[in-house]
Design a protein that fits this description.
binds zinc ion; about 70 residues; mainly alpha; elongated
Length: about 70
């Protein structure tokens, strides 16, 4: 079933997941180059983005349930 709102929420969730993947890859580089400072900075950002991801998934789930889409 087509739903513009679900598409929007789904795109938002996918975007946050993309950001998390990118940050994860950056952390791998930090581990390889032993950049502890940047590693911790990215860790904080990852935690923030993980919260965003939880909210995005929650909104998507809520909408699908209420709208039946
Ligand atoms: Zn919907």
């Amino acid at each position: 079933m087509q739903c513009a709102k679900r598409d929007e929420l789904s795109a938002k969730a996918a975007h946050v997941l993309g950001v998390i993947v990118k940050l994860g890859n950056e952390q791998i580089d930090c581990l390889k180059s032993n950049d502890q400072k940047r590693l911790l900075e990215i860790d904080k950002e990852l935690e923030r983005q993980y919260g965003e991801k939880q909210r995005a998934f929650g909104a998507l789930r809520e909408h699908s349930k209420e709208h039946g889409c």
